[in-house]
Design a protein that fits this description.
Shape: globular
Number of strands: 4
Distance between the termini: 45 Å
Strand content: 5-15%
Mean pLDDT: 97
Protein backbone atom coordinates (compact mmCIF):
# COMPACT_ATOMS: atom_id res chain seq x y z
CA UNK A 1 0.00 0.00 0.00
CA UNK A 2 1.29 3.46 -0.89
CA UNK A 3 2.03 6.07 1.75
CA UNK A 4 -0.37 8.96 2.32
CA UNK A 5 2.13 11.30 0.65
CA UNK A 6 2.50 9.06 -2.43
CA UNK A 7 -1.24 8.50 -2.64
CA UNK A 8 -2.34 12.12 -2.53
CA UNK A 9 0.57 13.95 -4.17
CA UNK A 10 0.99 11.37 -6.93
CA UNK A 11 -2.69 11.06 -7.82
CA UNK A 12 -3.61 11.44 -11.45
CA UNK A 13 -6.73 10.65 -13.49
CA UNK A 14 -6.39 7.23 -15.13
CA UNK A 15 -8.76 6.53 -18.03
CA UNK A 16 -7.33 3.30 -19.49
CA UNK A 17 -7.51 0.01 -17.60
CA UNK A 18 -6.36 -3.57 -17.90
CA UNK A 19 -8.95 -6.32 -18.30
CA UNK A 20 -7.91 -7.61 -14.87
CA UNK A 21 -10.61 -7.13 -12.23
CA UNK A 22 -10.23 -5.22 -8.99
CA UNK A 23 -10.13 -7.86 -6.25
CA UNK A 24 -12.86 -8.37 -3.65
CA UNK A 25 -10.36 -7.54 -0.91
CA UNK A 26 -9.54 -4.23 -2.61
CA UNK A 27 -13.21 -3.36 -3.06
CA UNK A 28 -13.93 -4.27 0.57
CA UNK A 29 -11.33 -1.69 1.67
CA UNK A 30 -12.73 0.92 -0.72
CA UNK A 31 -16.25 0.30 0.61
CA UNK A 32 -15.04 0.61 4.20
CA UNK A 33 -13.37 3.91 3.30
CA UNK A 34 -16.67 5.08 1.84
CA UNK A 35 -18.60 3.93 4.89
CA UNK A 36 -16.26 5.86 7.20
CA UNK A 37 -16.82 9.18 5.40
CA UNK A 38 -17.27 12.21 7.69
CA UNK A 39 -20.70 13.73 7.04
CA UNK A 40 -22.78 16.67 8.25
CA UNK A 41 -24.54 15.83 11.55
CA UNK A 42 -23.50 12.20 10.96
CA UNK A 43 -26.61 12.25 8.78
CA UNK A 44 -24.79 10.30 6.05
CA UNK A 45 -26.79 12.03 3.32
CA UNK A 46 -25.26 9.96 0.52
CA UNK A 47 -25.28 6.53 -1.09
CA UNK A 48 -23.19 4.79 -3.75
CA UNK A 49 -24.21 2.49 -6.61
CA UNK A 50 -21.38 0.10 -7.52
CA UNK A 51 -21.88 -0.80 -11.19
CA UNK A 52 -20.06 -3.89 -12.47
CA UNK A 53 -22.60 -5.41 -14.88
CA UNK A 54 -21.15 -4.98 -18.41
CA UNK A 55 -24.51 -4.15 -19.99
CA UNK A 56 -25.30 -1.53 -17.38
CA UNK A 57 -21.85 0.02 -17.80
CA UNK A 58 -22.35 0.04 -21.58
CA UNK A 59 -25.72 1.76 -21.21
CA UNK A 60 -24.21 4.37 -18.89
CA UNK A 61 -21.34 4.89 -21.32
CA UNK A 62 -23.82 5.50 -24.13
CA UNK A 63 -25.60 8.12 -22.00
CA UNK A 64 -22.59 9.82 -20.43
CA UNK A 65 -20.04 9.47 -23.23
CA UNK A 66 -16.92 8.66 -21.20
CA UNK A 67 -15.27 5.47 -22.50
CA UNK A 68 -13.65 4.59 -19.16
CA UNK A 69 -17.11 3.77 -17.82
CA UNK A 70 -17.37 0.65 -20.00
CA UNK A 71 -13.74 -0.45 -19.58
CA UNK A 72 -13.28 0.02 -15.83
CA UNK A 73 -13.72 -2.81 -13.33
CA UNK A 74 -16.09 -0.83 -11.08
CA UNK A 75 -18.01 2.33 -11.86
CA UNK A 76 -19.11 3.95 -8.60
CA UNK A 77 -21.96 6.46 -8.78
CA UNK A 78 -22.10 8.76 -5.76
CA UNK A 79 -25.54 10.04 -4.82
CA UNK A 80 -26.95 12.74 -2.62
CA UNK A 81 -29.58 10.79 -0.70
CA UNK A 82 -32.50 11.98 1.42
CA UNK A 83 -34.58 8.91 0.58
CA UNK A 84 -33.08 6.84 3.40
CA UNK A 85 -33.74 9.34 6.18
CA UNK A 86 -37.25 9.90 4.79
CA UNK A 87 -37.94 6.17 5.01
CA UNK A 88 -36.57 6.04 8.55
CA UNK A 89 -38.70 9.04 9.59
CA UNK A 90 -41.79 7.37 8.14
CA UNK A 91 -41.00 4.13 9.95
CA UNK A 92 -40.87 6.02 13.27
CA UNK A 93 -43.97 8.08 12.53
CA UNK A 94 -42.00 11.32 12.40
CA UNK A 95 -42.53 14.26 10.06
CA UNK A 96 -39.74 14.78 7.55
CA UNK A 97 -38.84 18.50 7.37
CA UNK A 98 -38.32 20.01 3.92
CA UNK A 99 -34.58 20.48 4.52
CA UNK A 100 -33.79 18.99 1.10
CA UNK A 101 -35.68 21.91 -0.49
CA UNK A 102 -33.22 24.45 0.88
CA UNK A 103 -29.93 25.50 -0.67
CA UNK A 104 -28.12 24.26 2.43
CA UNK A 105 -29.84 20.87 2.09
CA UNK A 106 -28.48 20.50 -1.43
CA UNK A 107 -25.02 21.62 -0.32
CA UNK A 108 -24.96 19.24 2.66
CA UNK A 109 -25.82 16.17 0.62
CA UNK A 110 -23.51 17.14 -2.24
CA UNK A 111 -20.60 17.68 0.16
CA UNK A 112 -21.28 14.33 1.87
CA UNK A 113 -21.28 12.47 -1.46
CA UNK A 114 -18.15 14.32 -2.58
CA UNK A 115 -16.29 13.45 0.62
CA UNK A 116 -17.30 9.81 0.11
CA UNK A 117 -15.87 9.88 -3.40
CA UNK A 118 -12.65 11.42 -2.11
CA UNK A 119 -12.34 8.64 0.46
CA UNK A 120 -12.95 5.99 -2.21
CA UNK A 121 -10.45 7.56 -4.60
CA UNK A 122 -7.76 7.90 -1.94
CA UNK A 123 -8.12 4.30 -0.82
CA UNK A 124 -8.15 3.00 -4.40
CA UNK A 125 -5.02 4.94 -5.37
CA UNK A 126 -3.25 3.80 -2.20
CA UNK A 127 -3.91 0.21 -3.35
CA UNK A 128 -2.24 0.89 -6.70
CA UNK A 129 -5.47 1.19 -8.65
CA UNK A 130 -6.36 3.84 -11.21
CA UNK A 131 -9.36 6.18 -10.88
CA UNK A 132 -11.09 8.93 -12.80
CA UNK A 133 -13.87 11.14 -11.39
CA UNK A 134 -16.60 11.69 -14.00
CA UNK A 135 -18.74 14.79 -13.48
CA UNK A 136 -20.71 14.15 -16.67
CA UNK A 137 -22.44 11.33 -14.78
CA UNK A 138 -24.38 14.16 -13.12
CA UNK A 139 -25.02 16.38 -16.11
CA UNK A 140 -25.12 14.42 -19.37
CA UNK A 141 -28.52 12.74 -19.03
CA UNK A 142 -29.76 13.04 -15.43
CA UNK A 143 -33.18 11.42 -15.84
CA UNK A 144 -32.00 8.59 -18.08
CA UNK A 145 -29.09 7.76 -15.76
CA UNK A 146 -31.48 7.80 -12.79
CA UNK A 147 -33.76 5.33 -14.58
CA UNK A 148 -30.89 2.99 -15.46
CA UNK A 149 -29.80 2.95 -11.82
CA UNK A 150 -33.34 2.76 -10.42
CA UNK A 151 -32.88 5.87 -8.29
CA UNK A 152 -35.83 6.84 -6.08
CA UNK A 153 -37.13 10.36 -5.61
CA UNK A 154 -35.03 12.12 -3.00
CA UNK A 155 -31.71 11.18 -4.61
CA UNK A 156 -29.54 12.66 -7.35
CA UNK A 157 -26.19 11.85 -8.91
CA UNK A 158 -23.28 13.97 -7.69
CA UNK A 159 -20.37 12.31 -9.51
CA UNK A 160 -19.10 9.04 -10.91
CA UNK A 161 -15.76 7.34 -10.27
CA UNK A 162 -14.23 4.72 -12.55
CA UNK A 163 -11.85 2.30 -10.84
CA UNK A 164 -9.60 -0.31 -12.44
CA UNK A 165 -6.14 -1.76 -12.76
CA UNK A 166 -4.25 1.00 -14.59
CA UNK A 167 -2.96 0.53 -18.13
CA UNK A 168 -1.46 4.04 -18.21
CA UNK A 169 0.31 6.51 -15.93
CA UNK A 170 -0.39 9.97 -17.40
CA UNK A 171 1.83 12.93 -16.69
CA UNK A 172 0.99 14.66 -13.43
CA UNK A 173 -1.18 17.67 -14.27
CA UNK A 174 0.06 21.00 -12.84
CA UNK A 175 -2.17 22.50 -10.16
CA UNK A 176 -2.30 26.08 -8.93
CA UNK A 177 0.59 26.93 -6.57
CA UNK A 178 -0.12 26.80 -2.86
CA UNK A 179 -0.22 30.59 -2.51
CA UNK A 180 -3.15 30.70 -4.95
CA UNK A 181 -5.06 28.04 -3.03
CA UNK A 182 -4.31 28.47 0.68
CA UNK A 183 -4.62 31.99 2.11
CA UNK A 184 -3.42 33.14 5.52
CA UNK A 185 -6.17 34.43 7.83
CA UNK A 186 -8.21 36.19 5.10
CA UNK A 187 -8.80 36.32 1.35
CA UNK A 188 -6.13 38.44 -0.41
CA UNK A 189 -7.05 42.02 -1.31
CA UNK A 190 -4.31 42.29 -3.95
CA UNK A 191 -6.37 41.66 -7.10
CA UNK A 192 -3.54 42.64 -9.47
CA UNK A 193 -1.09 40.32 -7.75
CA UNK A 194 -3.56 37.44 -7.86
CA UNK A 195 -4.32 38.10 -11.54
CA UNK A 196 -0.60 38.07 -12.34
CA UNK A 197 -0.15 34.72 -10.54
CA UNK A 198 -3.17 33.31 -12.37
CA UNK A 199 -1.75 34.37 -15.73
CA UNK A 200 1.52 32.65 -14.86
CA UNK A 201 -0.42 29.48 -14.03
CA UNK A 202 -2.39 29.82 -17.28
CA UNK A 203 0.92 29.71 -19.16
CA UNK A 204 2.08 26.66 -17.18
CA UNK A 205 -1.06 24.80 -18.26
CA UNK A 206 -0.64 25.84 -21.89
CA UNK A 207 2.95 24.55 -21.90
CA UNK A 208 1.90 21.33 -20.18
CA UNK A 209 -0.82 20.68 -22.78
CA UNK A 210 1.63 21.30 -25.63
CA UNK A 211 4.36 19.00 -24.27
CA UNK A 212 2.63 16.25 -22.27
CA UNK A 213 2.81 12.63 -23.32
CA UNK A 214 -0.19 11.32 -25.27
CA UNK A 215 -2.68 13.68 -26.89
CA UNK A 216 -1.38 17.25 -27.09
CA UNK A 217 -3.46 20.43 -27.36
CA UNK A 218 -2.95 24.18 -27.39
CA UNK A 219 -5.46 24.70 -24.55
CA UNK A 220 -4.68 27.27 -21.91
CA UNK A 221 -6.43 27.18 -18.52
CA UNK A 222 -8.69 30.25 -18.47
CA UNK A 223 -10.27 29.94 -21.93
CA UNK A 224 -10.73 26.19 -21.56
CA UNK A 225 -12.51 26.49 -18.20
CA UNK A 226 -14.69 29.38 -19.38
CA UNK A 227 -15.70 27.23 -22.35
CA UNK A 228 -16.80 24.51 -19.95
CA UNK A 229 -18.83 27.04 -17.95
CA UNK A 230 -20.61 28.18 -21.14
CA UNK A 231 -21.41 24.58 -22.05
CA UNK A 232 -22.59 23.80 -18.51
CA UNK A 233 -25.08 26.69 -18.53
CA UNK A 234 -27.24 24.58 -20.86
CA UNK A 235 -27.27 21.46 -18.68
CA UNK A 236 -30.60 22.40 -17.05
CA UNK A 237 -29.67 20.99 -13.66
CA UNK A 238 -32.38 22.87 -11.76
CA UNK A 239 -35.10 21.13 -13.75
CA UNK A 240 -33.28 17.81 -13.32
CA UNK A 241 -33.21 18.31 -9.55
CA UNK A 242 -36.90 19.18 -9.53
CA UNK A 243 -37.69 15.91 -11.31
CA UNK A 244 -35.72 14.13 -8.58
CA UNK A 245 -37.99 15.64 -5.92
CA UNK A 246 -35.88 18.67 -4.99
CA UNK A 247 -37.29 22.19 -5.23
CA UNK A 248 -34.99 24.59 -3.39
CA UNK A 249 -36.81 27.74 -2.34
CA UNK A 250 -34.46 29.21 0.28
Amino acid sequence: MKSVEETILGRRSVRRYERESVTKEQMDLICEAIRNTPTSYNGQQFSVVDVTDPQTKLRLYELIGQKQIKTCSHFLVFLADYNKISLAAEAKGLEMPAFSNTADGLIVATVDATLAMSNALTMAVSLGLGCCPIGYARTAAPEAVSQVLGLPVGTYVVCGLSIGVPREYPDLKPKQPVDLVVFKDRYPADREGMASSLMAYDEVIREYNETRSGTKTDNDWVSHILGYYREAMDFGMLRALQRRGFNPTR
